[in-house]
Design brief:
By secondary structure, this protein is an alpha/beta fold. The protein has helices at about 15-35, 60, 110-120, 125-140, 160-165, 175-190, 200-210, 230-235, 240-255, 265-275, 295-305, 310-320; strands at about 1-10, 40, 75-80, 145-150, 195, 215, 260-265, 280-285. The relative contact order is 0.14.
């Protein structure tokens, strides 16, 4: 049996924890199907986002490492952005040019395969598992839990600006869309609790103001607007890099234990629905994904992906065509 160590490309710098873990999961699910007699070991010693010291493998700080019978025979460096990162045409996520750089959710039929890989290679170590179990015992109990993942206004990736054009924003955050889905769930589950996860202190406060004592949250290191891992990388010494990584992993596993999950498009939410393939979930941006668009809207998304949308001659031609089509522009 061949033993292979998987490492990130040295170029990786700004990707968050679950964007990075998705690289490994997508690679592993394909390789284990093709090469069942190969065993893999993940290394994160060149992933500096959550390192507190040089040449530190943060994988061991968070995850339970598999014990291999021998040292790996060879090393494979995963590229920063693989074509394996695919969604509706394959597995986990895709920053797709043809779909406004959205992070598409995984297909339901793929979640079971991805779950097996996650639990084999990315199970929390004993320390993190103890934190997860203690929080569940203290805050979840026997109540129905609606998990919510809502990013702060600092988020700029994943096609955020395009999605937000279809949303009513409050302080740069689309609370209204999330609150509508939360209220629908609460109308059917009167005693349910809301477990809110965010990268922003303002979001946690706003959700707590809206839904009161039924809201619970994990004691995470946050910034006002969000994106604390970027702030730490840029030199914010008030943030503990180890704790930032720990927080997002613990919260993701807690979200996977909820009865219902409301989310936007992100590597974290995709990871959560794959960790628990039976988890009921609602994506607030589902109506706006390109595979749900029709007619004029679908063509417009395609032209944007090819960077043709701003060309004046294209606008003139399609403006005439649009007047003949029944599907209105938006």
């Amino acid at each position: 049996m061949e033993l292979v160590e998987l490492r990130l490309s040295p170029k990786i710098k700004l990707a968050g924890m679950f964007a990075v873990l998705s690289y490994f999961v997508d690679y592993l699910v394909n390789q284990e199907l093709r090469h069942p007699n190969t065993r893999f070991q993940i290394s994160l010693d060149n992933y500096t986002m959550y390192q507190s010291g040089s040449a530190e493998d943060v994988y061991d700080y968070y995850f339970k490492r598999q014990q291999l019978a021998a040292k790996p025979n060879r090393v494979i460096h995963l590229p920063v952005a693989q074509k394996l990162l695919i969604a509706r045409a394959g597995y986990m996520t895709k920053l797709g040019r043809a779909n406004a750089r959205e992070l598409l959710p995984p297909r339901d039929g793929d979640r079971q395969k991805l779950s097996a890989i996650i639990h084999e290679y990315l199970s929390p170590n004993e320390r993190l598992q103890a934190l997860i179990d203690a929080f569940i015992q203290q805050h979840f109990g026997k109540s129905k839990i609606c998990g919510v993942h809502l990013r702060g206004s600092g988020r700029k990736d994943g096609g955020t600006s395009l999605f937000y054009r279809s949303c009513k924003l409050e302080d740069g955050v689309p609370y209204e869309k999330y609150f509508e889905l939360i209220r629908n769930y609460l109308s059917q589950n009167k005693d349910a609790k809301i477990f809110i996860c965010s990268d922003s202190k303002k979001v946690i406060k706003r959700v707590s103001e809206e839904f009161g004592e039924r809201v619970v949250s994990y004691d995470s290191e946050l910034t006002e607007q969000g994106e604390p891992h970027i702030a730490a990388l840029e030199g914010n010494t008030d943030l503990n890099k180890h704790k930032l990584g720990e927080d997002v992993i613990v919260e993701a596993y807690l979200l996977s234990k909820c009865d219902h999950f409301i989310h936007g498009n992100s590597s974290i939410s995709n990871f959560v629905v794959c960790m628990n393939p039976e988890l009921n979930h609602e994506d607030v941006y589902e109506p706006f994904y390109s595979y749900n668009l029709k007619g004029w809207q679908r063509l417009k998304a395609k032209l944007r992906s090819l960077r043709l949308w701003s060309h004046s001659w294209v606008l003139r031609v399609l403006g005439k065509l649009n007047s003949r089509w029944s599907c209105p522009d938006s």
